[in-house]
Task: structure prediction
Amino acid sequence: MKSSRYVVFPNGALHHGDEKGWGPNTLPGRTRTLSREHIATIWNRLDQMGMSTPERADKTVNFQILPRPKNGSVYMIAVNSNGEYWNYVRYIEEGQTADPAFKSLIRMLASYAWATDHPEVEGYEEPTRYDLGGNPYERYIEVQAQ
Result:
């Protein structure tokens, strides 16, 4: 999966970015504002995965001091609710499949951000141009006297 960063604020602001070299404390630009239904879906997914409360969370750590993997990836999910903070961290070796729960959440956030998590996929397509002849407004342009 492609290295990306998603941040969802309580007001529905979704920030997304996938620039190389970004650290865990980088706040990407705002992509869109999610509806209440989208926010509810995110919390529902977190609840289904057992991540909506701190009971099953990993030890809370500062993401900036986590060691960067030599090969593979690290997936970090931080949740803040009711004045509490908890996080989940998973290291994935190169060639190993990601935790299905993490993958499901990441793909959902990617779809909300109109992005993909597949590497080397360009989200922009060049428009198709058609040559339909000359300028259709040419007959309306006054010829300047010389």
Helices lie at 36-48, 100-112. The mean pLDDT is 84.
